[in-house]
Design a protein that fits this description.
alpha/beta; 10 strands
């Protein structure tokens, strides 16, 4: 059985933007053994994609360790840098599918386009090799959980970089508004984001039991997002989870443009994207100035709009069900 080794040793959101490409590979090579090199913590989500036969734990490109047979095909879905090409070349593959890089002239491929949307980027790479990819194939089947926060509003204040973290006091103001409106709210995040989530809860008057940050596994977080009525967050993996599960969002972008990593255009009806129009340094150790231009009032207005849309959609769905019952 031929082996296809795919490198995507990045975070949750990065994995989810590669789902259409992974599924395209599966369709194109149904009898091959597809191995994904990605962080081990993402395995529960990898299993939901149902297009990968094996996960080889890989924290980053330089951590790739391959002791299997040389792959027939190595696919670089990692980045536009040279490191992914170099590490995949060490596995002695028969062929590498990648965007080309000047530092590795012996390996060809299409030119990297920095402004391309991440979903488009990896689908385009496969298409240059004759593999048809469906950019709409982003959805995941929600996992089953023993706990439920159905119809709650998920507020996820964390992000992987300080530049993408909207201030805690502003998130607290949004939470207070939701509490006054009688909404159930939960605050999510990992163990490192729990102190910030507790601060937001204290500022907003939200009971500490509603702070799920640091207390959930990745699959429990995924279930909470899938069941939510709305997710409010920055440019982070939780936003991509919400897209995958069809959950409505209000997403705050900055310093990176939503045209590169936001909800795909065909899904914008379910998502409200807030962006000042300014790009900045994504590695900065303080909140991006453009992100700071997004006001609390703007976020609250977007939240109210999304909850209103959801109520209208639910009412229409209930009317349709009632009609079916009358006909029956």
């Amino acid at each position: 059985m031929a082996v296809v080794l795919v490198l995507r040793a990045r975070g949750l959101g990065d994995l989810l933007t590669a789902v259409p490409a992974l599924r395209a590979l599966r369709r194109a090579r149904p009898h091959d053994h597809i191995v994904l090199a990605a962080p081990h913590r993402l395995k529960p989500i990898v299993d939901l994609i149902t297009s990968v036969d094996e996960l080889t734990p890989t924290a980053d490109a330089e951590s790739l360790r391959w002791d299997g047979e040389p792959p027939e095909l190595a696919v670089n879905l990692h980045s536009g840098g040279a490191e992914g090409i170099v590490e995949l070349a060490r596995t002695d593959p028969a062929r590498i599918l990648t965007y080309r890089h000047a530092a590795v002239p012996a390996v060809g491929g299409p030119a990297w386009q920095p402004e391309m949307h991440e979903v488009d980027r990896w689908c385009h790479l496969l298409e240059t090799d004759g593999i048809t990819a469906d950019r709409r194939n982003l959805g995941l089947v929600p996992p089953v959980s023993t706990t439920s926060h159905r119809d709650c509003v998920v507020v996820h204040a964390g992000a992987g970089a300080a530049a993408r973290r909207w201030p805690a006091d502003r998130f607290a103001a949004v939470v207070r508004h939701l509490l006054v409106a009688g909404r159930e709210i939960v605050l999510t995040g990992d163990e490192f984001e729990r102190p910030a989530a507790l601060e937001i809860a204290a500022r907003a008057g939200l009971p500490q039991r509603q702070v799920l940050a640091g207390k959930q596994t990745l699959i429990e977080l995924a279930t909470t997002v899938a069941e939510a009525g709305l997710v409010v967050c920055g440019d982070t993996g939780v936003a991509h989870l919400a897209t995958a599960f069809g959950t409505r969002t209000v997403v705050l972008f900055g310093p990176t443009s939503p045209s590169r990593g936001g909800p795909p255009p065909h899904l914008l009806g379910r998502h409200v994207v807030l962006w000042s129009g300014r790009t900045g340094d994504p590695e900065a150790d303080v909140c991006d100035p453009g992100l700071l231009e997004i006001t609390t009032e703007q976020v609250i207005a977007a939240v109210d709009e999304q909850l209103h849309r959801r109520a209208l959609a639910s009412a229409a769905s209930e009317r349709r069900r009632a009609g079916y019952r009358r006909v029956g």
